[in-house]
Design goal:
2 copies of one chain form a homodimer. Chain A is mainly α. Helices cover 82% and strands 0% of the residues of chain A. The longest helix of chain A has 40 residues, at 4-43.
Chain lengths: 229, 229
């Protein structure tokens, strides 16, 4: 025999799972836009870049749906403890995901401009920064789905790697601009792409922090040294 | 005669006011750090820049306190409608304020590096971008305190002005780097400061959007064209 209370609880679980699924869907969309933006850069493809630039509304719509869902759950279900922290974390994570989506679009815009101008030789390889950033994004979301605080912690520790890669790219581009002023426009374009990747990594650490908070009820923000160059 | 229910309600109002006061305090701290960072740039003062760089923990502590307060209010008070939206908006706004604080520190770091290197002539005047950004930050927080959705809307409309000013500064700096490669380091420093200011303006529009949502219960995000260069 199920009581009406059991029924309410079960329905709440379903709604929480829907919320989680929607965040995962959004993360998948952002991941794929980021991958496409980097492909547009590598392949010098205006078409792929434009595809990403058109994709922004999709992410924005999901963001608004997630916010609404969170507010509705808070209003109707009055959750406590773990569930409450999960919903508060979701309100934070959705903001980070939306900004990551914006940054993927910004990268695509820069990639498009670079594809339309002559190639900068030697082409700076942003592959390692992009790969590390994508791994951080993916792992922070995996940690969120599984409620895996250890995995989330491993994401936090990797932020310094990105910062080092960024500084290295930065120095290379500065040198290139000093040596040959005809590379200035394109070097600045690549510099901003590197900066956008670094910011996506920062947002992944925000997601990881929110996961640790939601799983352990402990605030780990500002305890790791997250130096930004 | 006051009933126990009245008492609870009054206490809730007091807690909401405390939450608002804490966000205002945080906004005041961020505003003052931004003003100091820009002063460090203008006066070429390493000392003022270092002062701002040391200030980060203060903002971070307030952020964690605000988050805790929001969670506690949601858990214990189970607010509805306007109050619920206010608390959800606070969870968003506090994140934006914290990032703005980080950006003020980033500006101070760049200002310090610039103060330590020979002066770039002609010095680019970032005053108009800084003034416009500071006004947007101030007005978005004023709108929040007063629950003034009209004022918040006026903030959204000003984001394009910042974008135009940023693009103009950007072009000036690119020209300078092309003309004289000895200006590259310093031009890149100023470029990032301009970019940080533009991002602070973006965060102010996020705050303004959260205010409109909290006052009108209507989501205005992604309805204004917030183009980012």
């Amino acid at each position: 025999m199920t009581t009406s209370h059991d029924h309410i609880l079960k329905h709440f679980d379903v709604e929480l799972r829907e919320l989680k699924d929607k965040l995962l869907l959004m993360a998948g969309v952002v991941e794929s836009h980021l991958a496409s933006a980097m492909q547009a850069l590598g392949d010098r493809s205006v078409a792929i870049a434009e595809e990403v630039e058109k994709s922004d509304p999709e992410v924005n719509v999901i963001e608004m749906e997630v916010d609404e869902q969170c507010i509705r759950l808070l209003a109707l279900r009055q959750p406590a403890a773990y569930d409450l922290r999960f919903i508060a974390a979701s309100l934070k994570i959705v903001t980070d995901l939306e900004r990551m989506g914006d940054l993927a679009v910004n990268i695509a815009e820069r990639a498009e401009a670079l594809a339309r101008s002559p190639q900068l030789l030697p082409q700076l390889d942003l592959g390692p920064i992009a790969a590390a950033t994508q791994a951080m994004l993916k792992d922070s979301l995996d940690a969120f789905v599984r409620g895996d605080a250890d995995k989330a912690e491993s994401v936090l520790l990797r932020d310094n790697v990105i910062d080092d890669l960024f500084l290295e790219a930065f120095r290379t581009l500065i040198e290139s601009m000093k040596r040959d002023s005809s590379t200035v426009d394109r070097a600045v374009g690549l510099m901003f792409i590197a900066k956008h990747l670094e910011r996506i990594a920062d947002h992944s650490t925000n997601v990881a922090e929110a996961v640790i908070y939601h799983v352990r009820g402990k605030d780990v923000r500002h305890k790791f040294s997250l130096q930004r160059p």
